[in-house]
Amino acid sequence: MQLYLYDNWERQLRLFTPLRHDWIGLYCCGPTVYDYAHIGNLRTYLFEDLLRRTLEFNGHVVRHVINITDVGHLVSDADEGEDKMEKGSRKAGESAWDIAERFTVAFTSDLNSLNMLPPTIWCKATDHIAEQIDFIAAIEQKGFTYITSDGVYFDTSQQEDYGYLARLNRDGIEGGKRVELGEKKHATDFALWKFSPADEQRQMEWDSPWGRGFPGWHIECSAMASKYLEPWFDIHCGGEDHIAIHHSNEIAQNQACHGTRLANYWMHGYFLQIDAGKMSKSSGDFLRLQTLIDQQVDPLAYRFLCLSAHYRSQMNFSWDALEAAQTALGRLRDTYFALPEGGKADSSYVTRFHTEINQDLNVPKALVVMWEVLKSTLNDADKKATLNQFDRVLGLDLANWQPAVLTIPDEVQALAERRRLSRLNKNWAESDALRTEIQGLGYEVEDTAGGMHIRKA
Ligand SMILES: [Zn+2]
Question: What range does the domain containing 300 cover?
Answer without folding.
Answer: 292-400
